[in-house]
Amino acid sequence: MEEVRIIDLKESILADNDADADKLREELAEEKTVYINVMSSPGSGKTSTILRLVEQLRLLCRVGVLEADIDGDVDTRTMLDAGIPAVQLHTGGMCHLDADMSRQALREINSQDLDVVILENVGNLVCPAEFDTGAQINLVILSVPEGDDKPLKYPLMFTKADVVVVNKIDAMEVFDFSPEKFKQNVAECAPEAPVFMVSAATGEGIIALSEWIGERVKEILEYID
Predict the structure, then answer these.
(1) What is the pTM of this model?
(2) What is the pLDDT of residues 161-203, one digit of tens each?
(3) Buried b vs exposed e over 64-101: b needs ≥16 C-beta within 10 Å?
(4) For 6-10+17-136+201-224, which CATH superfamily applies?
């Protein structure tokens, strides 16, 4: 079994994280690497959705995953067992990653050798949205059991989203969740963000999501060229 590499991250001392995030995007552009920041609450299915997404993306490009948690390495082992390059990040109790913490992690996973790096950010709908990681794409996942009103309760998270994913649609009949109402609520926060309905358990909707991500990655890399 492959050994898990664990990085204990240090919070940035820079006063202006936004400026450092812009600098990181410039560094990634020089490497021709696309950085995707995945945010959601615990239990929404981030890991299983990322696993499904990477299965599709790595048919076309080189993909690695950064797993950010306060402690533990369960999600990283899941990725490594699937043959996906992955590094475990320990945030030391912090509920977010900032740009310099991302830089430390990207250096460890050798991002210059990858086309796409996906960050599974710390699980919650508040802190991660407040700190720019330097990612070119912010992907927010919400699961059906959480309810269709979350964009109204956590507007900043959805305002930051470039794309929104609703996971666990295979459980739709069990919960009071309206896709139409959810999309309306998302549109109030992020009118340009597409919404994809998926099931990481069955794979439904994953190909459409991966195609959107693939096109966005292609656009970013072409812009860099």
Answers:
(1) 0.92
(2) 999 999 999 999 999 999 999 999 999 999 999 999 999 999 9
(3) bbbbbbeeebebbbbbbeeebbbbbbbbeebbbbbbbb
(4) P-loop containing nucleotide triphosphate hydrolases (3.40.50.300)
